Fold each of these.
Amino acid sequence: MGALYSSNLDLDLVRTFVTICEAGTFARAAERVGRTPSAVSLQVKRLEERLGRALFLRQPRAVVPTADGEALLGLGRRLLAVNDEVVAFFDAPPMEGRVRFGAPNDSGLFALPAMLRRFAATHPQVEVDVRLDASRLLVEAVAQGDLDLVLYTGHCPSNRPAQVVHSQDLVWIGLRGGLAEARRPLPLALCQSGCTWRAAALDALDGAGIAYRIAYTSEHCQGQIAAVEADLAVAPLPASVAGPPFQRIASLPPLGSYDVLTRLRDGAGPAARALAGHVADSFREVPGLASRLFA
């Protein structure tokens, strides 16, 4: 245990060292850290002894870092930044309040638990009210101020405040070895009117001159997936769905990509902004999360 603690650096020594490098002299550094020049000099000596390296070239009117000193300057700044971030986080008063959060219907079963579990671990006193709905209705709700934060799928608008947290290809999905993709008119399983994936699919088929019929309509994407698994239809779905028992249908016209976005209510408070940050981080850090989010 003693060896473990002896390997740690004294952050006060590192902070003084960085201050000297930035101030250019021991005297100016001493003023900034509130110590005497002799005390600052003693701190540098202790740090050099701990590291076993000379950190400064002493010159008549200034001090210049050695090569080892230059290396420590970059590392020391990073070390102090992490330390200051940790201290600021735990010194801040606990965040409280209530966030009205909207997310696509199907994500309530798949993506939301991971997001909310992470948020609750760091913000246990924030109450989150969740509304599951179609993406277009969620966007309307946050614009009207009925929700504080929404997660939705679509395309990033140029004239509205939204942040893209994930992008993925939209592809045609059918049952592996199934017959639905060869039928004409092509049977489709789609979300209800107003869904961007539905519009993209119909536009692509119309542009390619492929006859189709809407064989199955569902408010939830899991309904589309069920229809595809029963080989009743094909469907426009995220590329991540294309694993067994499904396959991507390359013979149908391309559908492009879609975005997963977050949007905050105008004037949203710190709790809503904190949750928005956690949602964005979840897509980067939680494996497979994006494949669990549908329209």
Amino acid sequence: MSRALLLLRRRLVGSIFVLLIVIVGTFLLLEAAPGDAVDAYLVSTGGDAGLVEAMRQSWGLDQSAATRLANYLWALLHLDLGQSVAFSRPIRDVILERLPVTLILMGASTALSFGVGSALGIYAGARPGSVRDRVLSTASLALYAVPGFWLALVLVIVFAVDLRWFPISGFETIASGKTGFARAADIARHLVLPVTSLGVIYLALYLRMMRAGMAEVWRLDFIRAARARGLSRRRIVLAHVARNALLPLVTMLGLQSAQMLGGSVVIESIFSVPGLGRLAQEAVAMRDTPLLLGIILVSAILVVLINLLVDIAYAFLDPRVGASEASA
């Protein structure tokens, strides 16, 4: 336990600097982009020069970039994300409304990709070179090459438009009045296609990684020793080969969290899922810089937390990692 706490403390200290770099870097990139929230407002509604000047002063856009960055960092120290220009509401409230949707989407997609992908990888890697190994390897390669947005559009056309098995868009039925299990079932039905679109690509990746890892473990000396002791092939596969091949997948689970969070922007836009991804698209369209900064900050915190959990899990799965961190 002390080893895990030491590892957690070291990672948290490093994460603070990572988040600071993300905040400053994102702010500078957004400042370099042409236009601002006032320009986006004028494009949609119009206005005179007096209104433009008043809006810039009201939103603090008349100040220098350095002053606005310093004010933003000072507000963050007080856990204040600021006010959304587009929604005229505190950014914290806007994000907290959308965050659970994205967490559910990412959690279900991760469970699908990691669980099914590793299981199929074990099934393929249990007998390297067999027919099932070749078939699953080829299928995973083809599936990994498919763009996520294209897969999402195909699923919508086939299963939502033609067959009408699942809803085309949304997170749940609007004003349905459902509660409890009925509401959970309605949400699950709406998320079948988004979760499949987001998770299947990473499923193929985990399948290939597990299969490749097991192929390497099969060649190690302790596997030959296990065979010499007369252990059954099933026990060797599950207790020795798959267990050792699982460690790289745990590392990849943390690395893929950022990519999956980025992929949710496209998937949520296609299926009109009201999560952080779609909120980010709306913030970009309306040039709501404070809101976009808040979304990126919360996303970065999510990725950091996921990687912290992965590091702790890896330390428990492989004590050598925790020991090296403790001695460093």
